[in-house]
Amino acid sequence: xxxxxxxxxxxxxxxxxxxxxxxxxxxxxxxxxxxxxxxxxxxxxxxxxxxxxxxxxxxxxxxxxxxxxxxxxxxxxxxxxxxxxxxxxxxxxxxxxxxxxxxxxxxxxxxxxxxxxxxxxxxxxxxxxxxxxxxxxxxxxxxxxxxxxxxxxxxxxxxxxxxxxxxxxxxxxxxxxxxxxxxxxxxxxxxxxxxxxxxxxxxxxxxxxxxxxxxxxxxxxxxxxxxxxxxxxx
Length: 234
Fold this sequence. Notes:
Blueprint lengths: L1 E10 L2 E11 L4 E5 L6 H8 L7 E6 L2 E3 L3 H4 L3 E4 L11 H12 L4 H11 L15 H13 L5 E5 L7 H14 L5 E6 L2 H7 L2 E6 L2 E7 L5 H15 L1
Helix pairs in contact: 3-4, 5-6
């Protein structure tokens, strides 16, 4: 579903990605760990067609980026640090707005089903500005899932969430993953990331330094490897 070969991204003389290679099969969840500035957000922005690589090849479901970006965008749901929600609109109004952009049919039924799925149906007529951080994040994920994309890209979706909201997010991601959805998520939380991952990777200084099946790793092993890689890259 996703294939990246020798990916390079440079901003002026500064390298954000240095020859990254990775493959994610359909239905797999890849969780990427790494410190701030490691290149995680840059990688996701390239996969989401929001940024062009300096070098290397990127293929999404067989389409080459950036040349065939238009064929890829509808296949992607994106959650970033920006919610892309309108605070003075209700939960229903936000999802209807995006649904109309995508030209979705049976939109009202789709919106109701998604709000129920993320646990926000009772608050559907409330403005987003009245929501907690965790509720906003759940609505953001509903927005990203609205057009039923086969690929979901999540850039540190647990940032700023309290433990209860983080647990809700974890359970939601476990529910929406599986054979029909390919997920790449970045996070600083090793234990939560490992809990949903089929594969894990560690980005440090623009390089993907580790990539393993999650079943081969304990949390202690992952933590030790993470500390080693990030200290060597510092």
